[in-house]
């Protein structure tokens, strides 16, 4: 009999084992680990179980056998921990678009025809440019709705004559609405109708935020299991957003006052996640 699960927004759906299998594979678990975890999770299922409980069970099992895969598996939760202000999320997005060849800036003011606008992310390269509104949410179940899409389109209309940089290529050609959670169906319908670019954790189906992060191979420092919340906040205050930033600026770890063994453990985890020799 199919098991119904309760999602973060309170809605329900049928549990799909293939969805769990795919997420474990993406994290780097091998086939034997995937099968073992799915078998154990299946034993603990009950009608109405929350998706967060399924995640916690799978994460705990994966962490015991392959900690770095567990870190990658926790990516969505790691994005929530880039708060509470949302500015680190904007910087993370800028770094993500850098991997696609864009020059990026965050937190700038552009003058529109009728009003000035604070822009979360602006990106440009030889053949394309856009500005983006980053809607950060610190917990699952909170969606960006129609009002957000309406507001974003109004900003696009006012900024059509603006430029991100002095070059001709830097006109505002597109407006991207980006969230680390999801959009409501009405927001998606409206955005598609008026020509907004929409990017969320799972939209579009192909090349969504999750796909882009996995393809780029960049992970926020909040995925690290050997880093406390306060330690992550300290590193973010020094503009350390990505795990690879630690590799490039190892000296910043002195601000965490780690023992030699804890420092080595942390660096080993960073090395495994980034697949880079330190």
Descriptive report:
The chain is an alpha/beta fold and 278 residues long. It has 3 domains: 4-73; 87-216, Trna Endonuclease, Chain: A, domain 1, CATH 3.40.1350; 220-274. The protein contains 12 helices and 10 strands. It has helices at residues 17-27, 31-43, 51-65, 67-73, 75-80, 87-98, 146-158, 185-194, 209-216, 229-237, 243-248, 260-274, and strands spanning 4-6, 12-14, 49-50, 103-111, 116-125, 128-135, 143-144, 175-179, 182-183, 197-199. It has a 5-stranded mixed beta sheet, sandwiched between helices. The radius of gyration is 20 Å and the shape is globular. 32% of the residues are buried.
Question: How many structural domains in the coordinates?
Answer: 3
Find the count of extended strands (DSSP E, 2+ residues): 10
**Percentage beta strand:** 15-25%
Strand sequence of the main sheet, in spatial order? Answer: 4-5-6-8-10
For the CA atoms, what is the radius of gyration? 20 Å
Secondary-structure element string: EEHHEHHHHEEEEHEEHEHHHH
- Structural class per helix/strand content? alpha/beta
CATH architecture of the largest domain: 3-Layer(aba) Sandwich
How far apart, in Å, are the first and last alpha carbons? 50 Å
Main pleated-sheet profile? 5 strands, mixed
Q: What oligomerization state is this entry in?
A: single chain
Low-confidence stretches: none
CATH topology descriptor of the largest domain: Trna Endonuclease, Chain: A, domain 1
What count of helical segments does DSSP give? 12
Mean pLDDT: 92
Query: Portion of residues in helices?
Result: 40-55%
Name the CATH class of the largest domain.
Answer: Alpha Beta
Shape: globular
